[in-house]
Description:
9 helices, binds iron/sulfur cluster
Amino acid sequence: xxxxxxxxxxxxxxxxxxxxxxxxxxxxxxxxxxxxxxxxxxxxxxxxxxxxxxxxxxxxxxxxxxxxxxxxxxxxxxxxxxxxxxxxxxxxxxxxxxxxxxxxxxxxxxxxxxxxxxxxxxxxxxxxxxxxxxxxxxxxxxxxxxxxxxxxxxxxxxxxxxxxxxxxxxxxxxxxxxxxxxxxxxxxxxxxxxxxxxxxxxxxxxxxxxxxxxxxxxxxxxxxxxxxxxxxxxxxxxxxxxxxxxxxxxxxxxxxxxxxxxxxxxxxxxxxxxxxxxxxxxxxxx
Length: 286
Ligand code: SF4
Protein backbone atom coordinates (compact mmCIF):
# COMPACT_ATOMS: atom_id res chain seq x y z
CA UNK A 1 0.00 0.00 0.00
CA UNK A 2 1.31 3.39 -0.97
CA UNK A 3 0.10 5.09 2.13
CA UNK A 4 1.37 7.22 4.94
CA UNK A 5 -2.00 7.42 6.72
CA UNK A 6 -3.23 4.92 9.28
CA UNK A 7 -6.80 3.70 9.62
CA UNK A 8 -7.00 4.84 13.23
CA UNK A 9 -6.73 8.51 12.42
CA UNK A 10 -9.27 8.62 9.57
CA UNK A 11 -11.87 11.28 10.26
CA UNK A 12 -14.54 11.41 7.57
CA UNK A 13 -15.43 14.97 8.54
CA UNK A 14 -12.14 16.11 7.01
CA UNK A 15 -13.53 15.03 3.62
CA UNK A 16 -17.08 16.34 3.85
CA UNK A 17 -18.82 19.61 3.05
CA UNK A 18 -20.41 19.83 6.47
CA UNK A 19 -22.42 22.87 5.40
CA UNK A 20 -24.40 20.53 3.11
CA UNK A 21 -25.72 18.47 6.04
CA UNK A 22 -28.16 17.03 6.98
CA UNK A 23 -27.87 14.73 3.99
CA UNK A 24 -30.86 13.57 2.00
CA UNK A 25 -30.31 9.77 2.26
CA UNK A 26 -33.09 7.74 3.90
CA UNK A 27 -32.35 6.00 7.23
CA UNK A 28 -30.53 2.72 6.54
CA UNK A 29 -29.60 3.54 2.94
CA UNK A 30 -26.40 1.71 2.01
CA UNK A 31 -25.03 4.57 -0.07
CA UNK A 32 -23.65 6.40 2.98
CA UNK A 33 -21.53 3.37 3.90
CA UNK A 34 -20.14 3.24 0.39
CA UNK A 35 -19.26 6.93 0.52
CA UNK A 36 -17.43 6.39 3.80
CA UNK A 37 -15.45 3.46 2.36
CA UNK A 38 -14.47 5.54 -0.67
CA UNK A 39 -13.26 8.47 1.42
CA UNK A 40 -11.42 6.11 3.75
CA UNK A 41 -9.59 4.69 0.72
CA UNK A 42 -8.75 8.21 -0.45
CA UNK A 43 -7.39 8.96 3.01
CA UNK A 44 -5.23 5.83 3.11
CA UNK A 45 -3.75 6.67 -0.26
CA UNK A 46 -3.10 10.20 1.00
CA UNK A 47 -4.61 11.74 -2.12
CA UNK A 48 -4.80 15.53 -2.05
CA UNK A 49 -8.47 16.58 -2.08
CA UNK A 50 -7.67 19.18 -4.72
CA UNK A 51 -6.55 16.35 -6.98
CA UNK A 52 -9.82 14.45 -6.75
CA UNK A 53 -12.63 14.97 -9.25
CA UNK A 54 -15.87 13.16 -8.48
CA UNK A 55 -18.24 12.90 -11.41
CA UNK A 56 -21.72 11.60 -10.69
CA UNK A 57 -24.88 10.92 -12.63
CA UNK A 58 -28.54 11.10 -11.67
CA UNK A 59 -30.16 9.17 -8.85
CA UNK A 60 -29.57 8.80 -5.14
CA UNK A 61 -26.00 7.65 -5.90
CA UNK A 62 -25.44 10.78 -7.92
CA UNK A 63 -26.15 13.02 -4.95
CA UNK A 64 -23.23 11.67 -2.95
CA UNK A 65 -20.72 13.88 -4.70
CA UNK A 66 -22.44 16.95 -3.28
CA UNK A 67 -21.28 16.01 0.22
CA UNK A 68 -17.61 15.47 -0.62
CA UNK A 69 -15.12 18.30 -0.15
CA UNK A 70 -13.35 17.88 -3.50
CA UNK A 71 -13.89 18.90 -7.12
CA UNK A 72 -17.35 17.54 -7.94
CA UNK A 73 -19.52 17.47 -11.04
CA UNK A 74 -23.16 16.40 -10.90
CA UNK A 75 -23.93 15.56 -14.49
CA UNK A 76 -26.83 14.27 -16.60
CA UNK A 77 -28.58 10.92 -16.40
CA UNK A 78 -26.42 8.03 -17.56
CA UNK A 79 -23.59 10.28 -18.73
CA UNK A 80 -21.08 10.62 -15.90
CA UNK A 81 -18.60 8.34 -17.68
CA UNK A 82 -18.81 10.50 -20.80
CA UNK A 83 -18.05 13.67 -18.80
CA UNK A 84 -15.35 11.84 -16.87
CA UNK A 85 -13.71 10.65 -20.09
CA UNK A 86 -13.19 14.22 -21.28
CA UNK A 87 -11.99 15.31 -17.87
CA UNK A 88 -9.52 12.44 -17.45
CA UNK A 89 -8.09 13.06 -20.91
CA UNK A 90 -7.69 16.79 -20.33
CA UNK A 91 -6.41 16.47 -16.74
CA UNK A 92 -4.42 13.26 -16.29
CA UNK A 93 -3.06 14.71 -13.05
CA UNK A 94 -6.46 14.24 -11.38
CA UNK A 95 -7.91 11.13 -9.74
CA UNK A 96 -11.21 10.95 -11.59
CA UNK A 97 -13.86 8.98 -9.67
CA UNK A 98 -17.27 8.26 -11.15
CA UNK A 99 -20.13 7.53 -8.75
CA UNK A 100 -23.11 5.98 -10.45
CA UNK A 101 -26.05 3.69 -9.82
CA UNK A 102 -27.36 0.54 -11.48
CA UNK A 103 -29.98 2.42 -13.51
CA UNK A 104 -27.61 5.26 -14.36
CA UNK A 105 -24.75 3.05 -15.53
CA UNK A 106 -26.39 -0.11 -16.86
CA UNK A 107 -29.59 1.20 -18.48
CA UNK A 108 -29.38 4.70 -19.96
CA UNK A 109 -25.62 4.78 -19.45
CA UNK A 110 -24.87 1.20 -20.47
CA UNK A 111 -23.34 2.31 -23.75
CA UNK A 112 -20.89 4.62 -21.99
CA UNK A 113 -19.93 1.91 -19.54
CA UNK A 114 -18.95 -0.69 -22.10
CA UNK A 115 -16.88 1.83 -24.06
CA UNK A 116 -15.17 3.13 -20.93
CA UNK A 117 -14.22 -0.49 -20.18
CA UNK A 118 -13.01 -0.96 -23.75
CA UNK A 119 -10.83 2.19 -23.79
CA UNK A 120 -9.14 1.66 -20.43
CA UNK A 121 -8.74 5.35 -19.57
CA UNK A 122 -7.41 5.91 -16.08
CA UNK A 123 -10.41 6.46 -13.78
CA UNK A 124 -12.37 4.62 -11.13
CA UNK A 125 -16.08 3.90 -11.45
CA UNK A 126 -17.94 3.00 -8.26
CA UNK A 127 -21.34 1.61 -9.14
CA UNK A 128 -23.85 1.44 -6.30
CA UNK A 129 -26.20 -1.43 -7.05
CA UNK A 130 -29.40 -1.43 -5.02
CA UNK A 131 -31.51 -3.11 -7.72
CA UNK A 132 -33.82 -0.15 -8.20
CA UNK A 133 -34.29 3.45 -9.35
CA UNK A 134 -34.62 4.87 -5.85
CA UNK A 135 -34.84 8.60 -6.45
CA UNK A 136 -37.49 8.45 -9.16
CA UNK A 137 -39.91 6.29 -7.20
CA UNK A 138 -38.75 2.68 -7.30
CA UNK A 139 -38.81 1.52 -10.91
CA UNK A 140 -37.11 -1.74 -11.98
CA UNK A 141 -33.52 -1.48 -13.18
CA UNK A 142 -31.29 -3.91 -15.13
CA UNK A 143 -30.23 -5.44 -11.80
CA UNK A 144 -33.63 -5.91 -10.19
CA UNK A 145 -33.73 -9.56 -9.13
CA UNK A 146 -36.35 -11.76 -10.72
CA UNK A 147 -39.59 -11.93 -8.71
CA UNK A 148 -38.91 -8.60 -6.96
CA UNK A 149 -41.68 -6.04 -6.80
CA UNK A 150 -41.12 -2.51 -8.03
CA UNK A 151 -43.44 0.21 -9.32
CA UNK A 152 -42.84 -1.10 -12.85
CA UNK A 153 -42.95 -4.80 -11.94
CA UNK A 154 -46.09 -4.89 -9.82
CA UNK A 155 -46.47 -8.66 -10.14
CA UNK A 156 -42.75 -9.41 -9.73
CA UNK A 157 -39.92 -8.80 -12.18
CA UNK A 158 -39.49 -11.46 -14.88
CA UNK A 159 -36.38 -10.02 -16.56
CA UNK A 160 -32.93 -11.68 -16.36
CA UNK A 161 -30.43 -9.66 -14.35
CA UNK A 162 -27.14 -8.29 -15.62
CA UNK A 163 -24.02 -9.39 -13.80
CA UNK A 164 -22.39 -5.95 -13.91
CA UNK A 165 -18.90 -7.27 -13.12
CA UNK A 166 -19.06 -9.93 -15.82
CA UNK A 167 -20.23 -7.28 -18.27
CA UNK A 168 -17.41 -4.87 -17.33
CA UNK A 169 -14.81 -7.61 -17.52
CA UNK A 170 -16.05 -8.87 -20.88
CA UNK A 171 -15.98 -5.30 -22.21
CA UNK A 172 -12.29 -5.05 -21.34
CA UNK A 173 -12.11 -3.34 -17.94
CA UNK A 174 -8.64 -4.00 -16.56
CA UNK A 175 -9.73 -3.94 -12.92
CA UNK A 176 -13.09 -5.27 -11.75
CA UNK A 177 -14.26 -5.96 -8.22
CA UNK A 178 -17.34 -6.35 -6.09
CA UNK A 179 -18.06 -5.91 -2.40
CA UNK A 180 -21.01 -5.58 -0.07
CA UNK A 181 -21.43 -2.63 2.29
CA UNK A 182 -21.39 -4.78 5.43
CA UNK A 183 -17.73 -5.60 4.69
CA UNK A 184 -16.76 -1.94 4.93
CA UNK A 185 -13.00 -2.46 5.52
CA UNK A 186 -12.89 -4.92 2.60
CA UNK A 187 -14.77 -2.43 0.46
CA UNK A 188 -12.28 0.27 1.45
CA UNK A 189 -9.37 -2.03 0.48
CA UNK A 190 -11.00 -2.85 -2.84
CA UNK A 191 -11.59 0.83 -3.63
CA UNK A 192 -8.02 1.65 -2.61
CA UNK A 193 -6.70 -0.98 -5.05
CA UNK A 194 -9.04 0.35 -7.73
CA UNK A 195 -7.85 3.95 -7.19
CA UNK A 196 -4.25 2.75 -7.33
CA UNK A 197 -4.79 0.92 -10.63
CA UNK A 198 -3.52 2.54 -13.83
CA UNK A 199 -6.45 2.09 -16.19
CA UNK A 200 -10.22 1.78 -15.96
CA UNK A 201 -11.31 0.27 -12.66
CA UNK A 202 -14.89 -0.79 -12.00
CA UNK A 203 -16.18 -1.56 -8.52
CA UNK A 204 -19.71 -2.81 -7.93
CA UNK A 205 -20.98 -2.11 -4.43
CA UNK A 206 -24.02 -4.09 -3.35
CA UNK A 207 -25.96 -1.41 -1.54
CA UNK A 208 -29.47 -1.36 -0.09
CA UNK A 209 -32.45 0.86 -0.81
CA UNK A 210 -34.45 0.48 2.35
CA UNK A 211 -37.16 2.92 1.38
CA UNK A 212 -38.60 2.07 -2.03
CA UNK A 213 -37.16 -1.44 -2.55
CA UNK A 214 -36.89 -2.99 0.89
CA UNK A 215 -40.33 -1.91 2.02
CA UNK A 216 -42.05 -2.98 -1.20
CA UNK A 217 -40.46 -6.43 -0.98
CA UNK A 218 -40.86 -6.94 2.78
CA UNK A 219 -37.09 -7.26 3.18
CA UNK A 220 -37.05 -5.78 6.67
CA UNK A 221 -34.97 -2.86 7.89
CA UNK A 222 -31.37 -2.09 7.05
CA UNK A 223 -29.77 -4.80 9.26
CA UNK A 224 -31.93 -7.53 7.73
CA UNK A 225 -31.23 -6.29 4.21
CA UNK A 226 -27.49 -6.14 4.84
CA UNK A 227 -27.42 -9.67 6.28
CA UNK A 228 -29.41 -10.92 3.32
CA UNK A 229 -26.84 -9.40 0.93
CA UNK A 230 -24.03 -10.96 2.93
CA UNK A 231 -25.59 -14.41 2.72
CA UNK A 232 -25.38 -14.27 -1.10
CA UNK A 233 -21.66 -13.52 -1.17
CA UNK A 234 -18.77 -15.88 -1.70
CA UNK A 235 -15.07 -14.95 -1.82
CA UNK A 236 -13.51 -14.40 -5.21
CA UNK A 237 -11.58 -17.26 -6.79
CA UNK A 238 -9.20 -14.66 -8.22
CA UNK A 239 -5.64 -15.91 -8.08
CA UNK A 240 -6.56 -19.54 -8.44
CA UNK A 241 -8.63 -18.99 -11.57
CA UNK A 242 -6.82 -15.99 -13.11
CA UNK A 243 -9.77 -13.79 -12.33
CA UNK A 244 -11.77 -14.99 -15.29
CA UNK A 245 -15.35 -14.46 -14.19
CA UNK A 246 -17.01 -14.18 -17.56
CA UNK A 247 -18.84 -17.42 -18.02
CA UNK A 248 -22.22 -15.86 -18.65
CA UNK A 249 -23.62 -12.32 -18.70
CA UNK A 250 -26.42 -12.89 -16.21
CA UNK A 251 -26.17 -12.78 -12.48
CA UNK A 252 -25.58 -16.13 -10.74
CA UNK A 253 -27.30 -17.08 -7.49
CA UNK A 254 -24.22 -16.48 -5.36
CA UNK A 255 -21.83 -13.67 -6.09
CA UNK A 256 -18.03 -13.60 -5.84
CA UNK A 257 -16.58 -10.62 -4.00
CA UNK A 258 -13.17 -9.00 -3.95
CA UNK A 259 -10.95 -8.45 -6.99
CA UNK A 260 -12.47 -10.36 -9.89
CA UNK A 261 -10.36 -9.14 -12.80
CA UNK A 262 -6.95 -7.49 -12.68
CA UNK A 263 -4.80 -7.21 -15.77
CA UNK A 264 -2.31 -4.82 -17.28
CA UNK A 265 -3.37 -3.11 -20.49
CA UNK A 266 -2.22 0.05 -22.26
CA UNK A 267 -3.81 3.03 -20.54
CA UNK A 268 -5.83 5.01 -23.07
CA UNK A 269 -4.60 8.47 -22.01
CA UNK A 270 -0.96 7.45 -22.58
CA UNK A 271 -1.86 5.96 -25.96
CA UNK A 272 -3.84 9.06 -26.92
CA UNK A 273 -1.08 11.50 -25.97
CA UNK A 274 1.58 9.45 -27.78
CA UNK A 275 -0.64 9.37 -30.84
CA UNK A 276 -1.23 13.14 -30.74
CA UNK A 277 2.52 13.73 -30.47
CA UNK A 278 3.17 11.41 -33.37
CA UNK A 279 0.63 12.97 -35.71
CA UNK A 280 1.67 16.50 -34.66
CA UNK A 281 5.21 15.60 -35.72
CA UNK A 282 4.03 14.23 -39.05
CA UNK A 283 1.92 17.37 -39.68
CA UNK A 284 4.96 19.59 -38.89
CA UNK A 285 7.25 17.43 -41.01
CA UNK A 286 4.74 17.06 -43.82
S1 SF4 B 1 -34.72 6.11 -1.95
FE1 SF4 B 1 -33.50 4.27 -1.54
S2 SF4 B 1 -31.51 4.64 -2.56
FE2 SF4 B 1 -32.57 6.62 -2.35
S3 SF4 B 1 -31.81 7.49 -0.45
FE3 SF4 B 1 -33.71 6.40 0.04
S4 SF4 B 1 -33.02 4.33 0.65
FE4 SF4 B 1 -31.31 5.31 -0.42
